[in-house]
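Sample pair:
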Amino acid sequence: MKIYDYFFYKLYLFFRELNPSMPGFLAMMALSWLFLFNFFTGYSLLNIYFGIGLNTYNKVFGILLSFIIIIVHYYSFLYKKRYVKILKKFSNESKALKLFGTLGVILYIVITIWILFVYIVPNIEGILVK
């Protein structure tokens, strides 16, 4: 969970620069989306290449899973201001670690989105059911 907290920390700092009024909410939503991208990418790859998984995907499942993930992230980071402990935990990182961590988070985001669009989007009609 420490690495997940670190991702939240880095996203919080990024969104604090963009919108100082609600960086915690934006960081939580970004993590929720990234988690969903990873989940659906893994699910889709298993389905496409191995035939493993639910044979169909429907909108209700996707919406329900999205709400569940957002609620879990809310309670993990924002409820009772839990993010304050996370910010304190990582606030004393060295300049080298700060740079390395930022590059790692950026790389994770780029790879997540790249895999989603390269492998999943072209095969989407074989996965989705209306």
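The longest helix spans residues 23-50.
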